Amino acid sequence: MKIPFFKENYYLKYSLIHNVGYEFYDKQLVITIDFANWMQKSYDENQPGHTLGNLIFSGVENITISEKNFILNSNEILDLRSELISSDPNIVQIGFMVDEPEGFVILTFKALEVEWLPIFSFFEE
User: What does the alpha-carbon distance between residue 106 and residue 118 come to, in Å, rounded to a whole number?
Assistant: First the structure.
Protein backbone atom coordinates (compact mmCIF):
# COMPACT_ATOMS: atom_id res chain seq x y z
CA MET A 1 0.00 0.00 0.00
CA LYS A 2 1.10 3.56 -0.55
CA ILE A 3 2.60 5.42 2.42
CA PRO A 4 -0.05 8.19 2.63
CA PHE A 5 -2.82 5.54 2.81
CA PHE A 6 -0.90 3.67 5.51
CA LYS A 7 -0.42 6.80 7.63
CA GLU A 8 -4.10 7.76 7.32
CA ASN A 9 -5.55 4.33 8.07
CA TYR A 10 -3.25 2.55 10.53
CA TYR A 11 -2.62 3.66 14.08
CA LEU A 12 0.65 2.34 15.54
CA LYS A 13 0.41 3.83 19.01
CA TYR A 14 0.63 1.14 21.73
CA SER A 15 2.10 -1.35 19.26
CA LEU A 16 5.48 -2.77 20.31
CA ILE A 17 8.67 -2.83 18.22
CA HIS A 18 10.61 -6.10 18.43
CA ASN A 19 13.17 -5.63 15.67
CA VAL A 20 14.29 -3.22 12.95
CA GLY A 21 16.39 -4.36 9.99
CA TYR A 22 17.49 -2.74 6.76
CA GLU A 23 18.15 -4.73 3.57
CA PHE A 24 20.57 -2.49 1.70
CA TYR A 25 20.41 -4.02 -1.79
CA ASP A 26 16.60 -4.32 -1.78
CA LYS A 27 16.14 -0.90 -0.12
CA GLN A 28 13.72 -2.48 2.36
CA LEU A 29 13.23 -1.59 5.99
CA VAL A 30 11.61 -4.42 7.97
CA ILE A 31 10.06 -3.58 11.34
CA THR A 32 8.73 -6.48 13.40
CA ILE A 33 5.92 -5.28 15.65
CA ASP A 34 3.25 -6.54 17.99
CA PHE A 35 0.48 -4.63 16.21
CA ALA A 36 -2.29 -3.27 18.45
CA ASN A 37 -5.39 -4.34 16.51
CA TRP A 38 -7.57 -2.90 19.28
CA MET A 39 -6.41 0.63 18.38
CA GLN A 40 -7.67 0.43 14.77
CA LYS A 41 -10.88 2.08 13.53
CA SER A 42 -12.08 -1.21 12.05
CA TYR A 43 -11.44 -3.27 15.21
CA ASP A 44 -14.16 -5.68 16.29
CA GLU A 45 -13.89 -7.13 19.81
CA ASN A 46 -14.25 -10.64 18.32
CA GLN A 47 -10.87 -10.13 16.62
CA PRO A 48 -7.53 -10.78 18.32
CA GLY A 49 -6.23 -7.79 20.26
CA HIS A 50 -2.72 -8.11 18.86
CA THR A 51 -0.95 -9.48 15.79
CA LEU A 52 2.78 -10.10 15.56
CA GLY A 53 4.02 -9.30 12.08
CA ASN A 54 6.38 -7.42 9.81
CA LEU A 55 5.94 -3.99 8.29
CA ILE A 56 8.03 -4.11 5.12
CA PHE A 57 8.76 -0.67 3.71
CA SER A 58 10.10 -0.65 0.14
CA GLY A 59 11.96 1.99 -1.84
CA VAL A 60 13.52 3.20 1.40
CA GLU A 61 16.05 6.02 1.50
CA ASN A 62 17.31 8.76 3.81
CA ILE A 63 17.10 6.76 7.05
CA THR A 64 17.97 8.68 10.20
CA ILE A 65 17.66 7.72 13.84
CA SER A 66 17.90 10.09 16.78
CA GLU A 67 19.93 7.70 18.99
CA LYS A 68 22.77 5.57 17.65
CA ASN A 69 23.08 3.18 20.60
CA PHE A 70 19.99 1.68 22.18
CA ILE A 71 18.49 -1.70 22.97
CA LEU A 72 15.19 -2.83 21.45
CA ASN A 73 13.14 -4.75 23.98
CA SER A 74 9.50 -4.74 22.84
CA ASN A 75 9.48 -0.96 22.98
CA GLU A 76 6.17 0.89 22.82
CA ILE A 77 5.45 3.03 19.76
CA LEU A 78 4.19 6.40 20.86
CA ASP A 79 3.72 8.16 17.56
CA LEU A 80 3.64 7.84 13.78
CA ARG A 81 3.86 11.14 11.99
CA SER A 82 5.74 13.18 9.44
CA GLU A 83 3.76 16.31 8.80
CA LEU A 84 5.85 18.23 11.34
CA ILE A 85 9.11 17.65 9.47
CA SER A 86 8.15 17.54 5.80
CA SER A 87 5.30 18.08 3.39
CA ASP A 88 6.46 14.97 1.46
CA PRO A 89 3.71 12.35 1.99
CA ASN A 90 6.25 9.51 1.72
CA ILE A 91 8.23 10.56 4.79
CA VAL A 92 7.61 8.28 7.77
CA GLN A 93 8.58 9.14 11.34
CA ILE A 94 8.11 6.58 14.13
CA GLY A 95 8.76 7.56 17.73
CA PHE A 96 9.20 4.91 20.41
CA MET A 97 10.41 4.54 23.99
CA VAL A 98 13.63 2.69 24.86
CA ASP A 99 14.98 1.45 28.16
CA GLU A 100 18.71 1.72 27.57
CA PRO A 101 19.51 4.53 27.44
CA GLU A 102 16.15 5.56 28.87
CA GLY A 103 14.31 7.91 26.57
CA PHE A 104 12.63 8.48 23.26
CA VAL A 105 14.00 7.43 19.84
CA ILE A 106 12.78 8.77 16.50
CA LEU A 107 13.25 6.73 13.32
CA THR A 108 12.74 8.80 10.15
CA PHE A 109 12.87 7.60 6.53
CA LYS A 110 11.34 8.00 3.10
CA ALA A 111 9.56 5.01 1.51
CA LEU A 112 7.39 4.34 -1.52
CA GLU A 113 5.20 1.53 -0.18
CA VAL A 114 4.59 -0.65 2.84
CA GLU A 115 3.32 -4.21 3.17
CA TRP A 116 1.95 -5.82 6.33
CA LEU A 117 2.80 -9.52 6.75
CA PRO A 118 1.19 -11.01 9.86
CA ILE A 119 2.97 -13.88 11.63
CA PHE A 120 0.32 -14.76 14.24
CA SER A 121 -2.50 -13.20 16.24
CA PHE A 122 -3.39 -13.54 19.90
CA PHE A 123 -6.11 -12.49 22.30
CA GLU A 124 -5.47 -10.64 25.57
CA GLU A 125 -6.67 -12.27 28.76
Answer: 24
* Domain tally, the chain: 1
Could you list the residue range(s) of the whole structural domain that residue 51 is in? Answer: 3-119
Task: List helix spans (H) across the chain.
Answer: 3-9
- In tens, the pLDDT along 15-60 reads 988 889 999 999 999 999 999 999 998 898 888 889 999 999 999 9
Residues 33, 91: Cα–Cα separation, whole Å: 19
124 domain-assigned: no
Q: Report the C-alpha gap between 25 and 15 in whole angstroms.
A: 28
User: Helix or strand or coil: residue 114?
Assistant: strand
> For residue 101, is the peptide bond before it cis, meaning its omega torsion is within 30 degrees of 0?
yes
